[in-house]
Design goal:
By secondary structure, the chain is of the alpha+beta class. Among the domains are: 119 residues, Uridine Diphospho-n-acetylenolpyruvylglucosamine Reductase, domain 3, CATH 3.30.465.10; 190 residues, FAD-linked oxidase, cap domain/gating helix (Vanillyl-alcohol Oxidase, Chain A, domain 3). The protein has a seven-stranded antiparallel β-sheet with strand order 15-12-14-13-17-18-16, with helices on both faces. Helix 1 runs antiparallel to helix 3. The radius of gyration is 22 Å and the shape is globular. The C terminus is likely disordered.
Length: 470
């Protein structure tokens, strides 16, 4: 619990309506979309502007009170859970798009803006913001930045980091810095913008972002390819890329995922095949037509049972929406759904898919596989029940095997969900002990009191639960 005097100082900063301290109010902020991680904060504080964020952070730094920044709470690695108590900093008031600059092709936004809202706002100007995580209807730009989120269009267009040009950030000492800007080139000092993107709120609080926009593609086509064998679909992915075709979207769904999505959405997806590829290409009409023809030929060469092209915009949007519903649909089947994102080089996608199937069978588990196959980012999703301790031990063993296999194939333990607390034990597999120590040195330099989202990414043995007691 926070002392009464600290609570009063927080009320003075944000007003009584913007602080919650009762247990019933705190419960909703004790967990995120990650199963198995829950801890009550001591308060939820909702600042209204950057100056208030800075004052709150200075207060917390002085008293060594942990701060966990939070948007919509869609995090899938327990990155927004207040595991050390303290304050959840809720960014609900930072919900405005500040400027769409058509001359410089940028948008300046606060972190609490919903991703889909920003995408639609810039599209009304004929501009395009490509990063599109599956949670885009509810996730916020600040969370996308903290996790360096990807999305269905990541294969062709890249991830959030590729579009962050500048940031306003409140550091752990309460100082406000601005990085980057509306600049095509800027090498003045260290690249602090890139350092903050993907740092999971462990280095500072993002209060504003300047994002790059590009012109809207002239046209696009959407294709669905059906396969009787999962390995044929996986080999198709590698072949498309090796033929130097880069689709805007190249997604894979296995049969259990298809069945769950069709049962939920009822849009006419085939459920009697082992896998489907959802492929979208955009660009000029001539290039799209050429690429789609070549992709169709590659699909058929790799034993696609059927290849169809969406004939209307509505049909194409329904297919893409179905892919975005995969996690929601699967979550209805069992009490606990654990979604991961092991990522491998694109040439290894077939080997990784087959390894996941083997690992699931060996551990007697139901693991559905879908994901951004075109960029090697798979989402093995285990349907289980957290109350079944025996099964959960097999789930943990299976995912550890999956992470080891991804590393063996030249991949990584996370492509877009972040490390958070869930993957903290596995970070050394990717970066090694020396890499972890280098990251810790950066953390200590910027946040010496270790108040910024503690318990995420790595553990400091010297750190205790820093909660101010009455």
């Amino acid at each position: 619990m926070l002392t009464e005097s600290i609570q009063n100082e927080l009320i003075e900063i944000v007003g009584v309506k913007n602080i919650q301290v009762s247990n019933s109010s705190l419960l909703a902020y004790s967990y995120d979309a990650t199963p198995g991680f829950q801890s009550l904060p001591d308060a939820v504080v909702s600042p209204r502007n950057t100056e208030e964020v800075a004052r709150i952070v200075k207060l917390c730094n002085h008293h060594r009170i942990p701060i966990t920044p939070r948007g919509s709470g869609t995090n899938l690695s327990a990155g927004t859970t207040p595991l050390h108590g303290g304050i959840v900093l809720l960014m609900k008031h930072f919900n405005r798009i500040l400027e769409i600059d058509e001359e410089n092709l940028t948008v300046r936004t606060q972190p609490g803006v919903i991703t889909e809202s920003l995408i639609k706002s810039v599209e009304e100007k004929g501009l395009f913001y490509p990063p599109d995580p599956s949670s885009m209807k509810v996730s916020q730009i600040g969370g996308n930045i903290n996790e360096n989120s990807g999305g269905l269009r990541g294969l062709k267009y890249g991830v959030t980091r590729d579009y962050v040009m500048g940031l306003e950030v409140v550091l752990a000492n309460g100082e406000i810095i601005r990085t980057g800007g509306k600049l095509a080139k800027d090498v003045a000092g260290y690249d602090l913008t890139s350092l903050i993107v993907g740092s999971e709120g462990t280095l500072g609080i993002v209060t504003e972002a300047t994002l790059k926009l590009i012109p809207m593609p002239e046209t696009k086509k959407t294709m669905l390819a059906l396969y009787n064998k999962m390995e044929d679909a996986a080999h198709t992915v590698s072949s498309i890329i090796s033929n130097r075709i880069i689709p805007a979207t190249l997604e894979l769904l296995d049969q259990p995922t298809l069945k769950a999505v069709e049962d939920f959405a009822k849009i006419g997806l085939p459920t009697n095949v082992q896998a489907v590829l959802l492929i979208e290409q955009d660009g000029t009409s001539t290039n799209v037509q050429n690429d789609i023809g070549r992709i169709e030929a590659i699909c058929r060469d790799h034993h696609a049972r059927e290849v169809t092209i969406a004939q209307t915009k509505e049909e194409a949007e329904a297919l893409t929406a179905a892919r975005r519903l995969a996690l929601t649909a699967l979550a209805r089947l069992k009490p606990t759904t654990i979604l991961e994102d092991a990522t491998v080089p694109r040439s290894e996608i077939a080997n990784m898919v087959m390894a996941i199937q083997s690992i699931a069978k060996r551990n007697r588990l139901t693991i559905c596989t879908f994901g951004h196959a075109g960029d090697g980012n798979l989402h093995p999703t285990c349907l289980t029940d957290i109350r079944d301790t025996d099964e959960m031990s097999r789930v943990e063993k299976a995912f550890e095997e999956i992470f080891h296999k991804a590393i063996e194939l030249g991949g990584t333990i996370t492509g877009e969900h972040g490390v958070g607390a869930m993957k903290l034990p596995y970070l050394n597999l990717k970066v090694g002990s020396a890499g972890i120590e280098a990251m810790k040195a950066i953390k200590r330099a910027i946040d010496p009191n270790l108040i910024m989202n503690p318990g995420k990414m790595f553990v400091f043995l010297e750190r205790q639960r820093l909660v101010v007691q009455k």
